[in-house]
Write a structure and sequence with these properties.
alpha+beta, 8 strands, 34% helix
Length: 245
């Protein structure tokens, strides 16, 4: 039987069989999808000499600017002692912020703390060698992937026999909303084009964000539709990202 999923990639036979089996037997839980997706994305669809697949990437909130108190102008002013105490507290707060500042792999200034950090299932990123100060090119996020649970989708549809499609759509909406939240957090960590992929079972929903845009948009010809993961339109979007400089 000829390969069905992305036949042009000439995947190893066992990996090809795993994906082709998803067409009739979708992965029911996210964990069943993680391994095959990683194998496919890293080293086959996206060659390791240009791209890295980062599972559970830490997307910390980017810090655009820090409010630094003005330096003392040298003039002596009278105070009651309470102002000095307030100034000391401000200095302590500033020192704590500065101590927690970090530069992530995409070159963004972030707070090095778990609060507010987001964890997409995967990102695919373009990279240029050593991750150090001598390398002027930070990693660039190209794709964000969020995988939902087919079990949750199936259960929701069975629990609403009168309107299973509406129940399923609610679960799909939750996953795509989470994906778009991740894409928004990427902010300036991408250039030109960012692809978002939400996946449940053997279906995907696609979103795109372009430089200068503050919104995640729909892809012409696909829109809000969930399409099967072997749909040529999905493969074409991946190829578009791979062919970017």
């Amino acid at each position: 039987m000829p390969p069905i999923f992305d036949p042009a990639e000439n995947l190893p036979p066992a990996l090809q069989e795993r994906f082709d089996a998803w067409i009739t037997s979708p992965p029911r839980r996210q964990f069943q999808a993680y391994g095959p997706l990683t194998a496919y994305l890293q080293g086959h669809k996206f060659q390791s000499d240009r791209f890295l697949v980062k599972p559970q990437k830490l997307l910390r909130e980017e810090i655009e600017e820090i409010d630094v108190p003005d330096e003392d102008d040298g003039e002596e002013e009278e105070d009651d002692g309470e102002e000095e105490e307030d100034d000391d507290e401000d200095d302590d707060d500033l020192e704590n912020v500065l101590a927690n500042l970090s530069i992530d792999s995409s070159g963004a200034t972030v707070l090095n703390e778990p609060k507010g950090t987001l964890y997409p299932d995967f990102t695919v990123e373009r990279y240029w060698g050593a991750d150090n100060d001598d390398n002027p090119n930070p990693d660039v996020v190209r794709i964000v992937v969020e995988v939902g649970s087919f079990v949750q989708l199936d259960r929701a549809m069975k629990q609403a026999p009168r309107n299973p499609d509406a129940a399923g759509d609610r679960i799909r909406e939750i996953v795509t909303r989470q994906l778009e939240k991740y894409m928004t957090r990427v902010e300036d960590r991408f250039d030109d084009r960012l692809l978002g992929v939400a996946m449940i079972g053997n279906e995907v929903a696609l979103r795109v964000r372009t430089s200068g845009s503050h919104n995640n948009t729909l892809i012409p010809g696909i829109g809000t539709d969930w399409i099967r993961f072997d749909d040529p339109r999905f493969i074409q979007e991946l190829d578009t990202i791979r062919n970017m400089v």
